[in-house]
């Protein structure tokens, strides 16, 4: 059967299935009707709660949580530098202890997740540094779990690099990351421009640490030899081979490591100076290098190793940036991987903009806050690929001018367009032109870079996390394409067409789309269906009907939707979870309503799920993590997702229902 015939057959089956499902659910439709009075009260309570959380200058920023790797590394950083804040380390330790999962004894990458070796090794070491006895029950459980998974020698590259600096393993147990990488020419197989922004900002200060063979102060002289199944100096298998290409690159990398002593001193000095200059240029004030925790820690430690005094302005900037990521809850504290003010602000605005009859002044105040944060003429790494393209993006964080984010830019511009397209015309034009200029060759849009698709680099020994690159994704492409469509500039029509072609080509066999920056297929599917609405694609288009069918097929019995982060490991678990969540229910509802399904029983049941799970404070909350930072290796919990996405769905439902009545 040809591909076209197969698609037609699938479409016919979807139609049949939809008819049967509609017939089966007719009897339950009455029971799932939405109480309008309850809906009105729910929206009012949620809107008031959101407005109460708005900052005085107009923006919103909610906590952004990661796994215990981040607070553990904060403790390890303090001991590396011998800058130990005893009160803070004990607060961080309480948080880490609270997150230990009693089912397996270790620490997961996300709430309720499986044991993760690297996170557990860092958490154990951090707790031992703080003073937890290895004989304490929680430490015994953690150590047993670590050893049963192969011990600390099997931890990932970033963990082993830290252990090498703490002299827990020899330097031969880590990849070769010399400062000379900054000298490589553009044609070389590895070049900084060929990896993602987060890889660059982490690797350059790390290359300084590795080249100078950094040694943690470790003032309490704490070691973790008990976490190894073989003495570290006798271990011979620090680099399990992943693929045939990885084997070849590993041999080449080992040869480079053996030849390091032969690097001329003048070359090493030049490389260190260039790396230092690159890092200092991007220190980014009190928001830090790359505005992300791993890069900021590496930069802080590298500056010390390069001889910058404790009171030097660069050291002070880094220190304040790191402290700015802390969330102090009183008895305990934790550390964010970064902050998300632009993202939280624009998504909250988009939610509240659905209710055009409500007072929009708080939204306009938030949009006004966005304008001076637009990145126009500042230097940026992206300019290497597009030197003649005027800037026009927004960063994810309060400040990160070298690294504007296409996803944030598209969402911000979408909100500005809906707020007052005439008032914000200049900003919108700059944003639209910049986004169109950042489209990759395949028609997709990535988060930060263009054509960042040198996939062979994920096979180098350093990249065991598989997240060295920033290739285009469906969710970012959807928002960029959707905004360009509503902006309506004729010169962008080809970019819109190429974006749509990319999205159609990325649809999964089951009708869903992969979610790179939100968990997972429910997020990706909502993102694309929203773009289809903005572009005004016929709602009977086969791709849309297939997506609608999939969303309805994974609705849970309680009317909600949920999806485990395990679906990044096993796509067969797409749209599946043990419970429904407010944010994934909202995504599914927004997607269905974007596809013209506002009157369907599935939507009514989903709306009722949100109404019955709303808390007394007017919002929603749950422990589940909402997005991957990097699929399969690093996950995030946007605390705002359970706040603004449900109210977005509720307001849209009410608006569409009232429009139908009118």
TrEMBL record:
Question: Residues of the signal sequence?
Answer: none
Domain (Squalene cyclase N-terminal) ranges? 43-329
Which Pfam families did the record assign? SQHop_cyclase_C (PF13243), SQHop_cyclase_N (PF13249)
Q: Which GO terms describe its biological process?
A: triterpenoid biosynthetic process
The family line of this record is:
Belongs to the terpene cyclase/mutase family.
The residue ranges of the Squalene cyclase C-terminal domain are 340-654
Q: Which NCBIfam families match?
A: hopene_cyclase, squalene_cyclas
From the Swiss-Prot or TrEMBL record, give the protein name. Squalene-hopene/tetraprenyl-beta-curcumene cyclase
Does the keyword Transcription regulation belong to this entry?
no
Please indicate if the UniProt record lists Isomerase as a keyword.
yes
Task: State the pathway, as annotated in the record.
Answer: Secondary metabolite biosynthesis; hopanoid biosynthesis
For this UniProt record, the keywords arranged alphabetically read as follows:
Isomerase, Repeat
GO MF annotation list: intramolecular transferase activity
User: What GO cellular component entries does it have?
Assistant: lipid droplet
